């Protein structure tokens, strides 16, 4: 049967696990390699097991099922769109953890931490970040970057700026260690680290530094489906430019944020950014 092998590979790399780790107890590593490269598999049983281990809905890789299980990949999509309350409700449901593989537990704890942090519960967020860290392998570089980045975010919220700086420096060091191909695959993760650095600079009232980090993030921002992240970056630039009295830069950032909301086809994001248009027209 034809499957989306590239999607399986993307999800595996997102979790930072090897083909051998994914295949263990299910099939031979060479089968995983063939599925990823050729997009073809003969065994539905093996495909279901691989998807379960990756915590991805089989309907995302093959249109041969009516199952409708919510998976971590869907929760991550909600988090990427800043739908924290909806994601949190799913993560807290007692049925959600059924049949969850050990290798995705660090991601589960990370996503739960992000939701708690964004819903105003930073201490709970730190607890789940510690749980995520304890279950993450040193080879899972992308996941480690995400965990340290979120720790930095929580410390910023708690006004512990030195601790936040330490966490974000760890992120930058991990990013520097990435091979070029891995860095390309983790573009959005790296962008989020740069955004946190910008948020830390704003908290420290270092507004020129904040704008510099936003510009670096924009240069790395993926061209597709990154509207929510773009808006967050421009919000930082708007505030920083306002503090520095840079009206032209502020107006440009407002225009970018408005345009992102308009083209996102996300009603909530469009409504959130609509006021920038009226503010620009009034000036």
From TrEMBL:
Record-level Gene Ontology MF annotations: DNA binding
Gene3D superfamilies in the cross-refs: Tetratricopeptide repeat domain
Superkingdom in the source lineage: Bacteria
Record-linked Pfam families: HTH_3
PROSITE patterns, alphabetized: HTH_CROC1
Family matches, as SMART domains: HTH_XRE, TPR
Record organism: Weissella viridescens (Lactobacillus viridescens)
Residues making up the signal peptide according to the UniProt record: none
Cited CDD domains: HTH_XRE
Transmembrane segments: none
Residue ranges of every copy of the HTH cro/C1-type domain listed in the record: 8-61
Protein name: XRE family transcriptional regulator
């Amino acid at each position: 049967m034809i499957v989306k092998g590239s999607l399986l590979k993307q999800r595996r790399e997102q979790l930072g696990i090897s083909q051998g780790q994914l295949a263990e107890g299910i099939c031979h590593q060479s089968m995983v390699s063939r599925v990823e490269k050729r997009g073809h598999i003969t065994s539905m049983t093996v495909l279901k097991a691989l998807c379960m281990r990756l915590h991805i809905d089989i309907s995302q890789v093959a249109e041969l099922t009516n199952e409708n299980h919510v998976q971590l990949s869907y929760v991550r999509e909600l988090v990427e769109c800043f739908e924290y309350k909806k994601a949190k409700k799913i993560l807290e449901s007692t049925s959600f953890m059924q049949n969850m593989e050990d290798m995705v537990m660090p991601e589960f704890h990370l996503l739960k931490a992000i939701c708690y942090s964004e819903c105003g519960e930073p201490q709970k967020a730190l607890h789940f970040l510690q749980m995520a860290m304890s279950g993450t392998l040193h080879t899972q570089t992308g996941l480690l970057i995400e965990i340290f980045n979120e720790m930095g975010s929580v410390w910023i919220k708690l006004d512990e700026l030195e601790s936040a700086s330490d966490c974000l420096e760890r992120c930058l060091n991990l990013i520097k260690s990435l091979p070029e191909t891995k860095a390309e695959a983790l573009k959005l993760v790296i962008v989020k680290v740069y955004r946190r650095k910008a948020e830390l600079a704003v908290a420290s009232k270092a507004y020129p530094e904040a704008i510099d980090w936003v510009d670096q993030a924009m240069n790395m921002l993926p061209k597709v489906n990154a509207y929510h992240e773009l808006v967050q970056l421009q919000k930082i630039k708007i505030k920083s430019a306002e503090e520095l009295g840079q009206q032209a830069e502020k107006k440009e950032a407002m225009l970018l944020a408005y345009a992102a909301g308009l083209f996102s086809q996300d009603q909530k994001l469009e409504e959130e950014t609509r006021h920038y248009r009226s503010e620009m027209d009034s000036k």
